[in-house]
Design goal:
With 784 residues, this protein is α+β, with helices and mostly antiparallel strands. The protein has three domains: 15-31 and 521-744, no CATH class; 47-85 and 238-512, Beta-galactosidase, Chain A, domain 5 (Distorted Sandwich); 136-216, Roll (Pdz3 Domain). Helix content is 31%, strand content 21%. It is built from 18 helices and 29 strands. It has a nine-stranded antiparallel sheet with strand order 12-13-14-15-25-21-20-17-18. Strands 11, 16, 19, 22, 23 and 24 form a six-stranded antiparallel sheet that branches. A four-stranded antiparallel sheet has the order 1-2-3-10, with no helix packed on it. Helix 11 packs across helix 12 (584-597) and helix 11 packs across helix 17.
Length: 784
Amino acid sequence: MTRISPQSKEQPFDQRLLTFVLLSAAVVMLWSQSMAPKPPVEPKDKPAADAVARQDDELDEEGSDAADGEAADPDKPDAEAPLVEDQPAVDPARVTFGSLASDGPYRMLVSANNIGGAIERIELSSEQYRDLHDRAGYLGSLELSETMTVRQVGAGTPAALAGIEVGDTLASVAGKTVDSPQAVAKALAETKPGDTLKVGVRRGDADKQLEVKLERRPLDVIRPELENILLFADKPPADFRPTPSFLLRLESVGDRGTDSTAIRAANRQLTREAWKVESTTDASVTFTMRLAKLGLDVVKRFTLVEVPEAQRSDPLTPAYHFVLGVEVRNLLDAPQKVAYRLEGPNGLPIEGWWFSNKIGQGWGQYGIRDVVARLAGNQVVQQRASSIAEGDGEVMEGAPVAFAGVDAQYFAVVMLPEKETLEQVWFDKVEPVLATPLLEAGPKDGWNKPAATWNNPTISLVHEPVELAAAGAEGDTLSEGFKVFAGPKRPDLLAKYYAADQPAYNLQGILQYGWFGPVAKVMLAILHVFNSVVGNYGVAIIMLTVLVRGIMFPLSRKQAQNMVLMQTLKPEMDRIAEKYKTDMDKRAKAQQELFRKHKYNPMGGCLPMFIQLPIFLGLYRALAVDVELRQAPLFTESIRFCSNLAAPDMFYDWSAMVPRWFQNGQGIFALGPYFNLLPILTICLFLLQQKMFMPPAANEQAAMQQKMMKYMMVFFGLMFFKVPSGLCLYFIASSLWGIAERKLLPKPALPADAAPVMSKPTSVSPNRNGSSGAARNAKKKKRR
């Protein structure tokens, strides 16, 4: 019998490995994105998730409704005149602190608004963290008014370096007259980072032409949510209202709660009116608000930490935070019991909304942004944005709060109360809510429905009531502080941020690797080592592929040897199948005896499958979690193609040619705004392997299987179209290795004790002259 070697075109292609790995990956991705079992949702009223938005709506309706309520009774305290002297009205103002200079003393530039005394934007200064969508030149966040007046200029921005000042009127950009903020955005969209252009401004009575060198847009770890919505929609929802981060509201004063007219009026003042800018420095701002009718002063102070000069090049220096100080001061001659509610961060980035697959603690798809919290004596709790949007968010209470915040895929903003001990109780509950109105499909949206995972969650910390002493006495002021982490989710950096006096309660717990987490961590460690040597994560992934395939080489050669032996045994197996057509038990026993006799293990080819699957899923998880791989290019950041190994390769922008629902990437047939090349190359290599190594079909069943495999490749192509380019790179390198291994290496020999099997002939084969070998021998004997 002729043996068929692995290099021969009749060598069977191991379909089991490819099918098993790809089907497993497809099941995992489909399950995690859309098939996770959800608990039945009981009918509810408007979800509690809309708490912040509904409170704002109630404040808007305060006027006539309040007049019909408590305030109608002049004997009630709510209707009384101010208890203390009120402060003069304050004009709206914007304040920035920190710097965008990458070599400066701060890790971030913070933009605050005295309307609500809150944070609107936080831009990271490191060149490692840039915006992944906007690749046009960046001038700076100027917050232009409708009259084109510059309302803010952050330190270290291109605008500040060029000499643009607050109060200037912007007149032209690159020689083009601009008369609206939209015109400025359109003019800048035609530029690229590194361009130098002229910006015309009017300052007083003088016109100036300032030269600006544009930069790459920095990452906003907090930004106005409207900018996020306009990434996936043409306009915001009709009921949309911007909500800045870290708003403060009163929960109760004395026996008056949030249904009190006085408390509602105070909350409108705290969230909708201008706070006094008490003081500003390069690293801080202090806002104050006088609540004259309640006899209270409220202070909010934001202070950035400065990075020592010797540590500015160390990305693990714990300086990705600011301190939020809150003070509530009693101005009355009598004690008052006060409780407040502090809202957390919102408007975190939604980069990769059309492809991202954020890893969480459980099954199913997590939001682009989710709520995370940890209470004393408990593990980290992660609440999905979709659950919060459906009104299924669970209030966390019953233990002191260690930390709470909002977690995006690669970044997080988390509040850690600066208590002396973890056991101190400041807040008695943490509520997960939506900061902006629930995203819902409109009547004309058609297929372009916003995903529940795109909603904008935040936290609401409810403080326990605290007795404030009379004004001037000890204890007349409640003063508390929060360390607010706002940065990348690097494990070693997160470990340096922990609650109170408990290092075990650090922020590393917000990192979720999901299934095969240990494998993902090992692979990340190897990738980081390779990258430290070659300086390119794309090359590091190829080196990882070579390492994995090299380790698996003895197994793959054993697998090839098994396949040769299987071909050798095939005639005998066919004879057994023919002999025991109707008796499956006897057929199985005969086959087992044949395998035992020739030392063939039918499971011998399965080990590479079980090794490949965790490696594939481990790399998939690593790319979805590790911030070091985000923005890591295969070639260079100057071109979009393969500029981010944690995202699809984005070879060609076809967004102008496809509808919005197709761009948003929701579902297997919505492929996103870019044509991706690497998934196509991956599938082509799989098809090439089939063509080169798959044997001719021996029967109709085998032919049908081969035909189905080709059709399945189309399905796999759709499934893989939006996976990270780093994962495609692994598959391409692994496929090329497999082809080279089969075509270039010597044929594997059979074991010495595995002699070829010859089935017993059922007829005598004729020789070339048409007579049998036995007849020819008989003639020879006659001649003798």
